[in-house]
Amino acid sequence: MNAGVSRSPRAIMIPGVSRSPRTPRGRKRRNLLIDSLCVVAAVAAVIAEATPTVPAVVVRVFSLKYHAPDAALPVVGPLLTDGGSVIVQPKGNTLTVRDTVAAVERASKALTTWDVPPRSLQLRVTLLKATSSGKPVGGKPVEPEEIREISDRLKKLLSVTDCARLDSVVVQGVEGQTVAYVMGGEYRLEFLLEPSGDPKQIRLKGLAFERLHRGPGVVEVRKDILRTTINVSVGQPYILVVGRDEAAAGALVLVFRGSRTAVPGPGIAGAD
Q1: How many domains does the chain have?
Q2: Last residue of a domain, which of 80, 95, 114?
Q3: Which of 40-44, 81-85, 174-178 comes out lowest in average pLDDT?
């Protein structure tokens, strides 16, 4: 470097800005352009933030092993969004679900729990007759201990004085089967062991309790006493007051107690 010779600072060029930063007018133009660019960037950021993000839509085909695809609609339908859809394909026993990733994942988990082999079940059904006539009810002693406790509760609940066991049976079956049998010689009970999707529940769909009459020519006539659907918790008694008994001032009561069993069923066994 030669003594006494100085060099000017190197200017920095900004695209779109002329090289005139040393004058007040040039600095003003440059600052105005920079401010404009900042405003545009800020507006773009606001627009991007305000624009809703559309969830990704996926399509998934589920192959069912143990149930028909149309039976899965009540299981999957409530889990989908308003824009979701389900296509049933009976020929291939499949279900096609189109929805958001989260909704399809919910459907997948529900179908995994629901599409399982039918369970073998055992159900003890006891028919009780409660009266306040002051006369002996008849029937069998109220056994076992659990039924005795239920009998004592019924006496307080229904304000009756006597409670006897007319009949008790143990039915074994598989989910999907319809069970029907006569109890106490003059009553008929029928229900469908519907798959519940809950291992702790036994669903008795279309439960019908009828009184049997012998008409002219020994024709059997049925009279409805009760029709309903109930869910019986495994290992817990379910008490169902089915109606008044025509022969006495009292009520008929059905007590259900269910359990899982390895016996394939179906079958009915008497219970003393």
Answers
A1: 2
A2: 114
A3: 40-44
Distance CA 96, CA 61 (A): 4
Here the tokens at position 15 are: 């695209």
Q: Which residues of 187-201 are buried (b: 16+ CB within 10 A; e: fewer)?
A: bbbbbbbbbbeeeee
d(C-alpha 206, C-alpha 9), whole Å: 95
Residue with tokens 């049997």: 212
Residue that terminates a domain, selected from 77, 92, 114:
114
**Dist. CA 189–CA 226, nearest whole Å:** 10
Using the structure block, give the residue that is written with the tokens 């003003």. 28
**Which residue is listed with tokens 């200017």?**
11
What tens digit of pLDDT does each residue of 205-249 get?
Answer: 999 999 887 766 666 788 889 999 999 999 899 999 887 655 545
Question: Does residue 46 sit within a domain?
Answer: no
The answer to whether residue 132 sits within a structural domain is yes
Q: pLDDT tens digits, residue range 60-114?
A: 999 999 888 998 999 999 999 999 999 999 999 999 999 999 999 999 999 998 8
* Per-residue CA distances from 129 to 144, 190, 206 (Å): 16, 19, 23
